Amino acid sequence: MASYASLVSAFLLISSVPLTSAESAFFGKLKGNHQPTHTRPESAGVFAVGGQVDPPNAVTSINNQDGGACVDAYTQYCGPGGSSPPKSQWCSFEDMFNKNKPIMFSSCGQYNQPDDSGPEIGAIYDSIQQIATETKIDHRFILAVIMQESGGCVRVPTSNVQVPTPNGGVRNPGLMQDHDGDGTCNSDITHQVQNPCPTGVITQMIREGSAGTSSGDGLAQCINQSGSSGATAFYRAARLYNSGSIDSSGDLCKGIATHCYASDIANRLTGWTYAPHACGLDG
Length: 283
Known about the structure:
Layout: H1 8-15, H2 93-106, H3 118-135, H4 139-150, E1 159-161, E2 170-172, H5 199-211, H6 219-225, H7 231-243, H8 261-270
Antiparallel strand pairs: 1-2
Helix pairs in contact: 2-4, 3-5, 4-8, 6-7, 7-8
C-alpha cells in the first residue's frame, strides 16, 4: 500500500495545474446526519466502536487501481439501489483521490476557515488507507462520504440538527460528520480551531465516521445493516448513515434527512466532482 508521501512526484505534476475553486463543487451543506445508535450487541461482533464489515462486503486488501477512470457527470438514482451503478463502474481510488484534491485544497473557504495544506491532505490519504484496512470498508466509499460531508475540509464545523425524528437530532463533528464523535479541528465545545490539524485528529475523525463512536454507528455498521451485497449495500449504507433508516418503500430517495444522499454517493463513486448537481429532491 503506497503512502501519500510515495506519490509526491505524481502530486507535483497534478498540483502544477491551476486549482478549480470549490465554489462550483457540491458538498458539506451541514444539514446533519441521523446515524443509528448501537444496532447490535457487542457479542454479535459488530458494535459502535471498532466496527468491521462482515463478508461478503468486507474488503481485505488495499488496491489503489481498483477501478477505471473517473467520469465527472451526475445522474439521479432513486429506487432501492439496484438501479444505481455496479461496482464495475466505480473509478479507482487513486483517480478518485486525485480528482478530488483540488476541492480539498479549497473546501474550507465556505466555512471561513484556512484551507487544507498539502500535509493535511496527505494525512487524509494515509488515514483513509489505514482505517479501510482496520474496518474492511472499501476505501473509495470512505473517500466518497468525506467529500459528501465536508469536501475534505479538516476544519469543517460541527453540525447539530435537532428535529423531531425517531432517532432525534445528533451532533455531527469532523470530516465525516459522525455520530457525536470526539475528533474535530473546529470544536463546537471549546470553540478552538486547530491549524494545522494534527494527523492524529484527522485519523480519529475518519475512524469515528467509519468504525463508529461510543454513541452510534459508522459506515461499517451501516454496511452490515444494509441487508444487501455488492454496490447496493453501499448505497443503502449511505442512506442509513445520513438518515438512520431506509423508507419502508425501499426507495433511497424517500424518508428523512437528505433525499439525494445515496444518489450523491453513487455519483461520487463513479467520479462526480464539478458537474452540475442534477438532483432537485432537496430544493
